[in-house]
Amino acid sequence: MTRSGSTRGTETKRSGTAPQAVLDHNITERLARASHAQSSHEPEQTQMAHDPNKLARLVAAINRLYKQDLILADKMPRGVNGAWTVVNQSTGVKQVLKLVSEGDATQQILGARDSAQIAQSPQAPTPKFGLMGFIDRLGTFYLQEHLPGLPAPWPTHKLVLQLIELNKRQESDKFTSGQNYADRVLATLHDDVQGWQERIAGFGKEGGSFLQRLRPLFPEHLVCRRTDVVHGDFQHYNALVTEDDVLTGYVDWDQAGHGDRAFDLARLLYDCYVAEAELRYPPRPETIAALKERIVTISGEVALRAYMAYWCLQVADFGMKIGRADALKFFKTGRRIISELD
Predict the structure, then answer these.
(1) What's the CATH architecture for 151-341?
(2) What is the model's pTM?
């Protein structure tokens, strides 16, 4: 059996700047403050992985089918969505176990592995992927390296500058694995393939007004890079940091694909804006300026506007699923972004 090959057993498996007084808190206390906000952005497909009973069954199946000796330790902190720490009893090695889908998503995880490898650097480590596979009635899982640090609770200026440097390593002239984010942007804006615009338009006067303000950002054509690595959820929660915001790793590459790496920076830019609404952490003007400048340098002003429109739609739609208060909060964030792009 190989780590990424396929085998058969009795079960089917396939591989495949806040005030200084606030900043003085230690990182664990900061994480507690941020935890509710993170839950509002958590991908729906990871909700299944919050059931420790299912995770225990998964670990037992992995041990049986893949001849492992793992024990389930504890849930990873916020920011490492749906992930648990496991320990190999034979070697004592600690790894991260993630259950990503009830269906067979091994090809997507292989693309995630390739994406993380390209972005890897000593200054911004990405996790090494290990055993992965699909087990009937449980889903697709993977094991990956356990990196030091804890999820960053805020998008500080120091952290954002480090993530801009990480993003530079996502440049590629031949990467085509995973989702096609370049096509997805235009299909979302012009064809509403996600259904976000229809749902927002149906959200009373507030939704209709928001959509009307947003649509002028939609481009007729979008010339952008198409073969860069795209993380797909490039926000501060996926950054692991030390107490003083030194980046120790970047995780959650599950939805990685190809397209324009500036698309990821646009997600981080939206993240900086929404941190004020969710975490009472207002972005520094120089942080916003640095991200905008970098996006425009890579792909131009049209791309900046298009990508911000995409993320405004995505998060607003997600907020509507949570409730009216969250929807209105994200509409307000989107209107601020629109006004600063005009």
Answers:
(1) Alpha-Beta Complex (3.90)
(2) 0.85
